[in-house]
Amino acid sequence: MARKESEEWLEGRNPVLEALHSGRKLKKILLAPGARGESLTAIAELAGQQGIPVEYLEKKQMDRRSVTGRHQGVMAVAEALPYATVAQLLSRADARGEKPLLLLLDGVEDPHNFGSIIRTAEVGGAHGVLVPERRTAPLNATVLRASAGAANYLPVARVKNTARGIEELKANGCWVLGADPDGTVMWEETFDFTAPLCLVLGGEGTGLSRLAKEKCDLLLRIPMYGEVSSLNVSVAAGVLLYEVLRRRQGE
Known about the structure:
22% strand
């Protein structure tokens, strides 16, 4: 079966279950005959309640169709996750009566890191993630799995490029803070973190692009005390995000 651009294949028990709980539109669910478990029972029950067709497919056929290699006896065909707009992310913050807190990824191409960042951002109360059209991982089954289903709940906006995204955010009243080794140590910075914010993180091994650095209002550094001089970008996202939350809780 050919995969259409308008479709997304979900793989694994938790991703499919989270999609059902979130109300994401699923076209059908594929189960391996003989697969057992509470989560599979819950998937079958929810599919019946929501009127989603369930088909059975031999495990070997699932193995051939799997992208992640971890389908666990269940796959689903869903409508592709739509990209949001910057305006929609800002409106989400406004609807919650909160100052915008966003993350912009400048060249994060690893889908596992992308998914992990979405998961951290959703759990941490961020209002959305922005990515440029090029040099970024697509919203696919690997990203969804790495996000532990968070991609079903947190919108991702696509901008033309990082520089234009930063300009649009600034035009809408956001301060833009970049993660960079040459920046100010994050907990020594006296900036008002309760303001509308967007955190910008660079790609794996490359960091922020030169233009992104120039466009940011402020560069922040996560201090390093070991022999290794850098953090995985998804870990860095979590450290920075929770420092912002800590400051906001103390406002």
